[in-house]
Design brief:
The chain is of the alpha+beta class and 234 residues long. Helix content is 45%, strand content 17%. The chain contains ten helices and eight strands. It has a five-stranded antiparallel beta sheet, with helices on both faces. Strands 1-6-7 form a three-stranded antiparallel beta sheet.
Length: 234
């Protein structure tokens, strides 16, 4: 199986897992219906998402508060979630599921990485990036990206030829592509989400109250685009 086929297969299975349950706790539609597209309202998708969101949060809090789960490695966390049919997951959980699915399909663990999007040297009080997804590609390239915030900045990655052999697999954002295309596709995704009224729960700082619901096509997107990748090879 080619790397592209394996990446797309893991993505498809992770999306099926996501769609079959409560989805995530950190996405919903704007509470003001005037900001939500008519077809999301007419189809019932907005209501269904907003109804499921609090329950998804309760489900996610169970495993996140478990010492057993937190002491597992990345692959085992994905196995716990996927094989255990845990009914909700945010971006981090879905990335772990992808890591497990790739490993289960025969990909060497050193070609798989749980990857965080973070702000390098943030100014005190400034909002920081908060996201995670899965990378799959040649082990030498993934290892070269570890602890390299400058060369892993999203604006540097955009259309960079060196990253065309690495796949970014992001079920939370319904995106699977080569890494050089990931920044542009995520910007487009955030713009479309904002247009039809989707909001994201942004944990933008270290404090207990540093979070809130935001239009992704605004400050969230700006901070995301200026962030870097923290690559954790499995």
């Amino acid at each position: 199986m080619s790397n592209e086929s394996r990446a797309k297969s893991a993505f498809s299975k992770a999306r099926d897992y996501y769609e079959s349950g409560l989805k995530s706790a950190n996405k919903k539609y704007d509470d003001n219906s005037a900001n939500v597209s008519w077809w999301k309202q007419l189809s019932g998708k907005a209501k269904a998402r907003n109804t499921a969101q609090p329950t998804a949060g309760a489900v996610i809090s169970v495993h996140r508060s478990s010492n057993v789960f937190n002491n597992m490695n990345i692959i085992d966390k994905g196995r716990f979630l996927y094989d255990g049919k845990v009914s909700a997951g945010n971006c981090g959980e879905l990335a772990q599921v992808c890591c497990y699915l790739l490993s289960k399909a025969g990909a060497p663990n050193n070609t798989i990485a749980l990857t965080g999007v973070y702000t390098v040297n943030p100014v005190v009080g400034a909002k920081v990036a908060d996201h995670a997804f899965c990378l799959y590609g040649p082990s030498d390239l993934l290892n070269a990206m570890v602890n390299q915030p400058t060369f892993c900045k999203l604006d540097y990655l955009n259309d960079a030829r060196a990253y065309r052999s690495i796949y970014a697999i992001d079920p939370w954002a319904n995106t699977c592509c080569t890494l050089d295309k990931y920044p542009g596709k995520m910007a487009t995704k955030m713009e479309s989400w904002g247009t039809y009224g989707k909001r994201v729960l942004w944990c933008y700082g270290p404090g207990a109250g540093d979070y809130g619901w935001y239009n992704p096509n605004g400050e969230y997107k700006t901070v995301f685009a200026a962030a870097s990748l923290g690559v954790n090879v499995c």
